[in-house]
Design goal:
Chain lengths: ~160, ~160, ~160, ~160, ~160, ~160, ~160, ~160
């Protein structure tokens, strides 16, 4: 069985439509992953356990998405040295700026690799996770290069009306 | 010995000049308290222990101050039913708006009683703690009323040049 | 008859869909309450009377919701030592940031326990009120603990597609 | 004795350096005024009395300056039909945007004529008060026209180095 | 024929749904007015003429609404001593914060009495205009007092479900 | 005598330290210019005249700097087809975001070529003016290319401690 | 064949509905142009080539629209002395403020003539391009003057209900 | 000689005081690195070369700091699959929010791992780089764990006056 090296966690079921974009990117690149709901506030012990065992379970990257007072990515970064990629989920009143600041503004000692707000950020979290793994996985590096070249090649020369 | 019912915690020594205002207010009102550094990210286990024992140790209110991606108040609210009052400490780049959003925008289930950004908020956290205790301590309620009356009485009728 | 210890006030009928969330939380926790429209600007005398009699009528917590230049929570805090929880109602042009600043940024002397913008904030106001009452009501503390445990237990391990 | 038609009120002695600019403008235009500290939160009864007697005392304009959760202008507008001009005093953390939103975003029924944040706004409050009085005081209208012409005439044609 | 003392101008036909609220308020208070489209950028000469003749035509208040880089209120204030009330019309990308800053932040010498963003601000502009006229029109003052009392009296004691 | 093709105008003497950067850039590129104080609010007729005669006087670009409710660039764009470059001058309370929105958010029909807030924006206004003139002045184009190459060549390979 | 002097480029097909407004304005003024998709991130070499050949191909103005971390306008300005007009495309989470800051805040040396956010900005980009070309094309200047006069003439005197 | 796996690049010498924090963190963890000035706008070809050779030169992480319209991190991400960590340098007018949005809001396909604004973000960029390398370097992982434990152990139990 392939070792799972990417953990995708989110604060709530309601974050799934956003975070699913990360899984689709990893699927496209052939990177296995697991998906879990880990609520910093509602299931803090789950967060603790996840963080404490992340490295020993073989995880190499954790993608964490949350909205509002989004403590999940930063608290996870506090519990493990495994790199944490944070995805600020868009929110109703503040458009995800609350999520962004809660994830981004970490104090010295606990970086969170913050992505753009919302779906594009989640997709990019998948790509960043792949990029990190590719630093020690030449085959994945090759697949990532190919994906990037295909993206460039897909851009039309001129805009067209619908 | 008097039971300590108010815990004042902060994420870092650097928050102390702000949070000291809460202690001064509690001193003025004759409310005993303890002060601790509890960093959500650097000492998460300390946060865990503090939260898990807060109610059984007899704490009735927790004042938590932090800056930036300020997870301490919300994570404490996740660990204990004791009411948590949050103080957003002012920050360099974002003036404490990052602290504010990280503390305020808690999801359903885990309220944090958020105060104004900075020193005025810390002082008010002390007053809010006293107000909460006063709901079941008539002597404190009387002292609080007196403090409020003295504040009103101290206001001059007209502004004066320095 | 049970003493009503929580007063829920709001600036306008239009705040009711938001503030109703506070009542539902209090219903779930078995905490009796009253609901009133008290407009700081349109019915200032009503605000005055409510504030002046709040403590003597036995109120122990006031939840105040308002939008825009939201003066109700702060003015109520000026009139009574009973703790005031403020709920910033979301607004059309400024998404409730105007409500938030008007409620949060109180000067030294008059704290308002500010909640998140909108419906989640209103629900949390109910929980915060219960938490305050629970500091001197062991039975309510037990119910609150149970509610919190049930919330944690309700979280699925993994996200699912709709 | 000349009837005083302009009342200048402010929430705190600390607002005086800002609000003094309004008095200087009124001095320049020969408009008598009174200055008072009226704190919405610390002296609410003073606010009540001021508002209730404003019209009968012969006031025709009220200039109200305040900072942070600045409730003074709006609450005064709630208590009297005399036009209220609001001056958002600059604040430390939020640069007066909190003051601005608390003053500006009044609900239907209670306008506050909001000026620019800080000292320029206070000076302009004096001018606006004069402009309002000038609608029924031709001599003042003439003085105001002259002041405006002098201002225009004072502008150099070209910028110069210091 | 009654002298028209209130001019309502707006930068574009698209501002009319907002600005109409001002006319409805003035209708309710029995204050005659005129409505014009005066675009600061598209019809600058119309702006010039309106401003230069405003006082001599007998106007006592000008209500000016505009959106985006909203120069109409401030430019009108530059051309006439007649008090100008500014209404920031809500915009698509920036929710009217652009309109607000363009209207509010006038330099020393040219105050614009700025109202809340959008429809409530337009309605309040009508009320503010009436309040200004009422300083020298006792009959209007009486009608305004009655309108205010009716507003207060219309507020229900308790919120109701729809 | 060389025809002056660039007019640099500013709302106030206080804008000069910022706007001087534009002149220094034009000096470096050998482009003659004139500098004038033209206040949209204090000297509207000067603005009118400047705009009406700009094209006929041979101006090909106008650089306009202003702060706060910065109407000068947009009003100038309303009066002349000569391209207007706007420089938002930094302000005390709002850091120039007020200036920016007042200059940038022009309605369809009256573009203002907006530069960065403050001194860098003023310098770039000079460069943009030169770039516009260079579209029909090959010698200037050559000088501009050289200036750009020199800038690139001046960048050290590695950062150094002071 | 007419020399094409205006290049309209955009980061993505999704920017086309916005950028089309620029083409419509140029069509109205009889200015030929080309439209291309040039993605700063997906097709950086295309950006390089476009920039390097812009001047020699005879382009006199480049209009560049992009959203989010909008690097296209600024990177193009880095590659060519041809004036670049930037259009911040409105975005979902941040309403185009991200696009705006990414385009506007260019360092000394590389101005981008930034337009308003969204469709009005794109239309104005077309007008600004025409205005730049008109500095050395009297016939276009005449057409531009006529267009501006027609715009002014189209404004009704009074607003009307729909 | 040890292979250098971390490249630290910045847009300007003026970014060095901020970016130096990244080097200090890497020094503390025994991770070799190189430091270069690579200006996206002033030295685009340098950026191109750096990006094109990054992977083949053996770089595994790139830390890129820039301020204002900060295009360096995102453009580097466009040129190489090597993970890019972005540091938003604080700016004068907009406090680094312009830098942040320019770095963070990357489109699908080109993630930048964004850190907090300013010095804390630069230090954390060093830690994140180490964390990424540690995913395939057990000795570094051990050093990183030790550094984290030492940080936690350094936190005093209680705050102290200076």
């Amino acid at each position: 069985m392939t070792q799972i090296e990417v953990g995708i966690i989110m604060g709530s079921q309601s974050d799934w439509p956003t975070m699913k974009e990360a899984t689709e990117m990893l699927d496209a690149l052939g990177v296995p992953y697991e998906t879990k709901i880990v609520s910093a506030h509602r299931t803090p012990d789950r967060l603790w356990d996840y963080g404490k065992t992340a490295a020993s379970r073989g995880l190499k990257v954790i993608i964490a998405g949350a909205g509002g007072a989004a403590h999940l990515p930063g608290m996870m970064a506090s519990k493990t040295r495994v790199p944490v990629i944070g995805v600020p989920v868009q929110t109703k009143a503040l458009s995800g700026v609350d999520s962004l600041y809660s994830i981004l503004q970490m104090p010295r000692g606990f970086p969170v690799a913050t992505m753009a707000i919302g779906a594009a950020g989640a997709a990019n979290a998948g790509l960043m996770a792949a990029g990190i793994l590719a630093t020690s996985d030449p085959a994945l590096a090759t697949r990532l290069d190919a994906w990037r070249e295909a993206l460039s090649a897909s851009i039309a020369e001129e805009p067209v009306d619908d």
